[in-house]
Write the structure tokens for this entry.
Amino acid sequence: MSATFVGMPVFPVAARQALANDQLRRNLAHATGTIRAKRAQVVAEVADWEELRQAGADIKDHALATLADQLELLEQRLTDAGAVVHWARDAEQACRIVGDIAVGHGADEVVKVKSMVTQEIGLNEALGARGIAAWETDLAELIVQLGDDLPSHILVPAIHRNRTEIRDIFAEKMAAAGRPAPADLTDDPARLAEAARLHLREKFLRAKVAVSGANFAVAETGTLVVVESEGNGRMCLTLPEVLVSVVGIEKVVPTWADLDVFLRLLPRSSTGERMNPYTSTWTGVTPGDGPQQVHVVLLDNGRTRALADQVGRQALRCIRCSACLNVCPVYERTGGHAYGSVYPGPIGAILNPLLRGPGTDAQTDSLPFASSLCGACYEVCPVKIDIPSVLVDLRAQVVDAHRGGRPKPEALAMRGAATAFTSSRRLGLLERLTRVGLAAARRLPVARAWTGSRDLPAAPRESFRAWWRRTNAGAR
Ligand code: SF4
């Protein structure tokens, strides 16, 4: 995949470009509307949904409050089960670790389970730079990869493509990546799925190394969990000799009982299903069964930074269900590319600034403002992340980060008002100067621009306080 989010314009610019694409808006409205309706239907079936949401939030908060202990326990259990645990501070370290493992096994290709975190760290590009091809095996990710495209949705990365576009991509690009698409390929979904299945099967059978993420990591047993719909993940997790799992440190849950809550919340919130089709769990190495070398890369990459943010740390509860994207009126119109990150939509608008830090770059700083603050994201979030409150707090942080030594005109005006209002004498002087000052201000070019479409009220002949004094405290 040669496309990259690096260098994307700020959200308002990217959004304007996306809004001009009618086909994109039609695809998005259809796809988000369908998933939204399915989710609403299956969530309504669960009588204790609100209690389940609260339980999910509480478990994640407990895991985050005891993160150091949970991670040490996870590392111990993984090591006991024969896995090799690596710690990565940032994207560069994580990519280097994965690349070294692949090179160490003489691999020039890896097969990948759909994983947000490996996209976050730019793993495919880093492996490509070392001569290792990284093949996406999730159908939507395959479409994105073959189309030299970028993912635009957490769960449905090719949501911006319709099936005719997918047929064209398969017909044009599959041959260069392996088994070509059938010559008579149509846009029938079953034919498209069959073409992808045949294309991927030879890669599954050939690859020595697989790379995955994990939806959850159970500390008490050292078990990693991948939740998926197509079975491609199960193939990657079981066929190759070596498995490398890159796991964000916030994915840890303390116990199997905790995992139960998330396995009920996630499918209904994401695909609108009662259960997801494939849930794979593995605990280190099982002799004679599955990969005989298991590596786990525990990744920070800004997560401890986000954890230190008292308002924003709740974003680390996120289980990447994408329900917030599907209800967001902004996302529905712009799609995911406008957010300039693998994490789009409402969660992306808070997670990216939290991971990178406000004030880092203009694109990241534009994200907390990419919201109408309607609150729909909070209402559907299965782990009750109060996204609107985090957005408001991040907006303040972005403004603060840009104050520097040069205060803006509004800040100067507010400072002047504060000085005047804290002294009766100064306020009296200001009142006397107001009439003269307003008359002079009207002549300034900046004021003329402002009053071009607005009325500037005339100053009263006499201030309230002067009137009060003159009339003996208002008595007539
Ligand atoms: S913020 Fe909530 S709704 Fe959005 S992806 Fe994360 S868990 Fe799902």
